[in-house]
Amino acid sequence: MQMQQITIRVPSKYLSMIEEIAKSSGLKKSDITRMAIKEFIEAYSGNSDIRPYDRAKHFIGIAESGISDLGQHHRRHLLEKIKRADPCKPF
User: Fold this and answer.
1) Dist. CA 2–CA 90, nearest whole Å
2) Contact 91, 81 (CB under 8 A)
3) pTM of the model
């Protein structure tokens, strides 16, 4: 792919963060900026190679039901909940 050059202005806070990432990762500042732009364009356009799991992994495990075997026996727990429910109230 042919590379073109652009010039951008960023707040000093962002530049400091880019420099920190560059130093710790061994990448160039331009590589980090290019990766961020690519990720933004892919997310904005919907043409991303990101797996659905990667998009939702921060949601996994953030809620607790208090039922230790809910994943394995969800049908049984749901049926018990329906049987106990007051027909006049939503669950």
Assistant:
1) 59
2) yes
3) 0.50
Measured CA to CA, the distance from residue 47 to residue 59 in angstroms comes to 22
* Nearest-angstrom CA–CA distance, 12 and 3: 25
Q: Model confidence over 58-68: pLDDT tens digits?
A: 887 777 778 88
The two tokens of residue 30 are 């331009």
In three state form, how does the secondary structure of the chain look?
Answer: CCCCCCCCCCCHHHHHHHHHHHHHHCCCHHHHHHHHHHHHHHHHHCCCCCCHHHHHHHHCCCCCCCCCCCCCCHHHHHHHHHHHCCCCCCC
